[in-house]
Give the backbone structure.
Amino acid sequence: MTENAVAPVLHIILPCYNEEEVLPNSVDRLLALLKEWIASQLVDGESRIVMVNDGSRDRTWEIIQSLWLSEPLCSGLTLSRNRGHQNAVLAGLFASAPFADCIVTIDADLQDDPRVIADMVHAFRNGAEIVYGVRSKRETDSRFKRGTARAFYRLMKSLGAETIEDHADFRLMSRRAVNALGEFKEVNLFLRGLIPMLGFKTEIVYYERAPRSAGESKYPLKKMLALAWNGITGLSTRPIRLITILGFSISLVSLGVMIYTLIRYATGQTVVGWTSTTISVWFIGGLILMALGIIGEYIGKIYLETKARPRYFIETILPPHASLDERRDWQTGKEQIPFPGFKPESE
Ligand code: UDP
Ligand code: MG
């Protein structure tokens, strides 16, 4: 198949939470690349870098606004509060879909090599609708993160959830794929598990991941565990089945224990028993509590899903295709720039 001759409009989404330390550098690097790709007609001149401010408490939003005011290729939006990485990515994808032919999401610290976006676009022009960025090795990670990540992918696989190993949220999606993703209404989001469910023609590009250049990880262990747990309970009901199996096995074992105890009783050897009784009472009690806990987790998820709460609210979108003059007027309130998918607040 030959490559599509039309250069697509590319939007690059950067989810940003307290990223004032890395954002200016990241955007400089991306801008240089994007200008190169526009010049070489890999992508269309209407392509944009779209920064999603996820309720940052530092100067991130000010930085985004000033970049938008001075650089036509930059745009952004801000969520009304911190909604987490997955929701920030989603907000960016849906806000960009009306404008872009293909959309890449990449972390704002550019740990994922932005140069391979060119490979992703080539794959898109050759017909792929979803292109996954996959890390060729994990050397820049701590041993701990490497070990836990490996264990997590194994667990996901054994639980029957389809995920792409060593792929984070660095990927390209066509507008069609993003619109398809919009049909998934769940609020417990684990994009890495949802996107493989979409189907379409997919492709993989490999890259090496660099260490974070500045600032701290916005994914402390607690958030990482929450994401992993969301991935498991959001995609798989197998833990519930495991409880059932466990319950059956334990019942069988207790049956054996019962027969054994009765024989001891019949033969008059009843002094033994205190230890084993205590242990089994505690053990079974623990299992029951665990089982209830896991079932409770799923019921909690069902409760949240039935409410179908909105996943995020966009507070402001910086119109991506306004000229620099229009942007200045817009900011001072002189101009309303109409654009699809976004209604300005009522006059
Ligand atoms: N992030 C976000 N909202 C959050 C936490 C993180 O938008 O509540 C963004 C963050 O700004 C970054 C990306 O998610 O662009 C990944 O975070 P980070 O690089 O800190 O994660 P790590 O690389 O350490 O896994
Ligand atoms: Mg990072």
Observations:
- The chain has eleven helices and eight strands.
- The radius of gyration is 26 Å.
